[in-house]
Amino acid sequence: MKNETNTEPGFSTKTSAKEEPALLELFKDGIMDIYWAENHLVKNLPKMIRAATSAELVKTIEDHLEQTKGHVSRLEQVFGLLDEKPLAKKCDAMEGLTKEGEGIIESTESGTSTRDVGIILASQKVEHYEIATYGGLTQLAQTLGLDDVAQLLYQTLAEEKAADQLLTVVAENNINYKASEEA
C-alpha cells in the first residue's frame, strides 16, 4: 500500500512470534530514513556553502558538513550493532527541506545578508527535523534495550542541538541586522 508520498512503508504490524517485532522494524526503518537524509545533506550542504556570503556562516556550514559526514559513519556503526548492512530509504521530509533551501537561494539576491538569513532559516528547519528524528530514535533504542545504539544516537542528537544553537548565534551576530538594512 502506498502512502501520500508514494513510498512503500518499510514496516507493518506483525502477529507472528517468529518474525521481527513491529517496533524493531519501525526503528530500523527510521534508521534507514535518517541514513538517507544524512547522506543527502553531505551532497547538498556544499550548495549552501557556495551561496552564503558571511564568512561566519560559511565556516559554520563547512564545520557542520564535516560533522554530518561523521553522522553518516556513526549510523553505519548503528547498522553494524544491529547486524544489518547500511541501507538508505529515501527521506521525503529531508528532500523537501533541502528543496526549500534551494528555493530560498534562487529567490534571493546573491551576496546579500537576506540570502544568508534565508540559508540560516532553511538550515534550522533541517536541524529541527534531525533533532526530532534522533530524539525519537534514541528513545526507541532505549525501549528496545539497544543501549549501545541509543548512546550513538544520543551523541548525534546532542551535536544537532548544538548546530541549531550555533546557527542562532550566527544569525544574532549581525546577519539579521544587516539584512534588515538591505533594500
What does this structure look like?
The protein is mostly helical and 183 residues long. 75% of the residues lie in helices and 0% in strands. The chain is built from five helices and no strands. The chain has helices spanning 22-51, 55-81, 92-107, 113-143, 147-180. The radius of gyration is 18 Å and the shape is elongated. Mean pLDDT is 92; it is low at 11-17.
Helix/strand/pairing category: mainly alpha
Give the radius of gyration: 18 Å
Low-pLDDT windows of residues = 11-17
Shape: elongated
Q: Estimate what percentage of residues fall within beta strands.
A: under 5%
From N to C, what is the helix and strand string?
Answer: HHHHH
Distance between the amino and carboxyl termini? 50 Å
Q: So what's the oligomer here? A: single chain
In round numbers, the mean pLDDT is: 92
Note the main sheet. Answer: none
Number of helices: 5
Counting DSSP E segments of at least 2 residues, the number of strands comes to: 0
Helical content (DSSP H or I, runs of 4+): over 70%
Topology:
Layout (H helix, E strand, L loop, with lengths): L21 H30 L3 H27 L10 H16 L5 H31 L3 H34 L3
Q: TL;DR of this structure?
A:
By secondary structure, the protein is mainly alpha-helical. It has helices at residues 22-51, 55-81, 92-107, 113-143, 147-180.
Main attributes of the structure:
single chain; about 180 residues; mainly alpha; 5 helices
